[in-house]
Amino acid sequence: MEILKILRANEGLNQRDMAKKLNIAKSTYAHYESGRSEPDISTLKKLSDFFNCSVDYLIGHKVQDITKTKDATPLQRTLCADILSFDEEDCMRVEAFMEGLKSARKEQKQSKNSNIVDKTE
């Protein structure tokens, strides 16, 4: 599971550190990373919790992720992922801010359309 190596490195940990966190032998963890063996469900859950990702992600199962639509820009994807980590109160603030942006955009569009009509008359 190459992803384990990447996730572990991103955390600045070595294989021994990960093995300790999972309460398993270093060689067992090394075998997970090399693909020589696979973690059991309990260990997958621990890894998922530790790396804050889904078990699907760890095992390479592709699931539809609303933050990764083909039309979304990288910034839009990042914002979606950030919003998923917000509590309800923060989400309400973001929603109010977005409503203000939508309203401003609608007013700009109406103003632009009225200017086009004025120029054609």
Protein described:
The longest helix is centred in the C-terminal third of the chain and has 33 residues, at 88-120. Helix 2 (15-22) packs across helix 3 (26-34). The protein has helices spanning 2-10, 15-22, 26-34, 41-51, 55-59, 74-84, 88-120. The termini are far apart. With 121 residues, it is mostly helical. It has two domains: 2-63, 434 Repressor (Amino-terminal Domain) (Orthogonal Bundle), CATH 1.10.260; 67-120. It contains seven helices and no strands.
Shape: elongated
Largest sheet: none
CATH superfamily of the largest domain: lambda repressor-like DNA-binding domains
CATH architecture of the largest domain: Orthogonal Bundle
C-alpha end-to-end distance: 67 Å
Helix-strand pattern: HHHHHHH
List the total number of helices. 7
Mean pLDDT: 86
Total domain units: 2
Name of the CATH first level of the largest domain: Mainly Alpha
What Rg do the Cα atoms give?
23 Å
How would you classify the helix and strand content by structural class?
mainly alpha
Low-confidence stretches: none
Count of extended strands: 0
State the CATH topology of the largest domain.
434 Repressor (Amino-terminal Domain)
Percent helix, as a range, is over 70%
Share in β-strands: under 5%
Question: What order do the helices and strands come in, and which of them pair?
Answer:
Layout: H1 2-10, H2 15-22, H3 26-34, H4 41-51, H5 55-59, H6 74-84, H7 88-120
Helix pairs in contact: 2-3
